[in-house]
Amino acid sequence: MSKARELAELGAAYDSGALSNRNLIINGAMQVAQRGTSQTGTGYGSVDRMSLALSGGTATMSQQTNSATDRATTGFDKYLRLAFSAGNNNGGLNYKIEAADIIQAIGKKITLSFFAKGTNPNGGSFEVIHFWYDGSNVDNGTSGTLTVTSTWTKYSITLDTATVSSASLTAALSSYHFAIQQPNGDTSTNAWTLDITGLQLEVGTEATPFEHRSFGDELALCQRYYQRQTAGTNQYSIFLTGSIDTTSNIYLYGKLNGTMRTSPSFATANTYLYTQPGGTLTYAATSNRSGPEVASINFGTISGGTQGYGIRFESNAGNGYVEFDAEL
Question: CATH no. for residue 201?
Fold first, then answer.
């Protein structure tokens, strides 16, 4: 795309009052990967806000780094790779958007754009399938097929939701979905890959230049849905603190990073309870009482604690972590 064309499109976006906050996709530049850089299971597991769908066969979804040449071509440092095994008959990238964020687009035309490259034995084609809500299409039957090559190319598709009644699609906190996937029913015997970056969804019929956000801003948006606190290289990083209420029951608290979408689930690995004096404590149960802004965990059936003593929940190895999940 020429610089003159980019400036013209930006001018048009400015005239419509949408120069900023155009992109309804979070982490479209694939910068943030709190869980890790690769996953093999379905659902969320690597690049934040991106979910892996799969039917048959095996697949991985991973965060990759562009070469200097490709970075200059696309303007993006990171990209997402979908790699599917032979015999896979349906799979791809699924993205969910909160109703509160997408409601501005319902009843209008919306444009999805992204850079892609890859290989597919079925003629090199992939599908952008229907934009849907709660099992029902909201894009007036619009979908599209794209043919990828081994070089980065920008694609766009406009979805028409003009015939949809917004009043019937505004349930609070319901999610809207779209997917980029292998064509349904592909029973090829060859593996295939799809690389994606610069994912943008915006109101209107034009694919405007990608709305870049800083890594810090993108991370904060991702942490509304998921956040992981890690120890890094420090074995004794402290995640939660509190005191021993009784010799067999304690509560620990910690501030979350911003307000999450809803009260999150809690998970942890390579962590332990510690009090001084007294040392390591054992526990037999946990109860998650976290809210959208504060982590609150009850540890029950404690052994070795003294009422009134301070206590902390910390890593016992460099790879210790706690995570809070409020994904759609």
Answer: 2.60.120.260
DSSP state, residue 135: T
Tens of pLDDT, residue by residue over 31-72, are 999 999 999 989 999 999 999 988 777 889 999 999 999 999
Q: Which backbone phi and psi does 100 adopt, to 5 degrees? A: -60, -25
Compute how many other C-beta atoms are within 10 angstroms of the C-beta atom of residue 68. Answer: 8
Tokens 């029950």 correspond to what residue? Answer: 300
- The structural domain count of the chain equals 2
pLDDT in tens, 72-96: 999 999 999 999 887 776 778 889 8
Residue 278's φ and ψ, nearest 5 degrees, are 130, -35
Boundaries of domain holding 308: 228-325
Q: Which helix (H) or strand (E) holds 226?
A: strand 226-230
Measure the CA–CA gap between 213 and 199, rounded to whole angstroms. Answer: 13
In this structure, the answer to whether residues 234 and 202 fall within a common structural domain is: no
- The two beta strands, 153-160 and 51-55, are unpaired
Q: Closest Cα to residue 305, out of 264, 262, 274?
A: 274
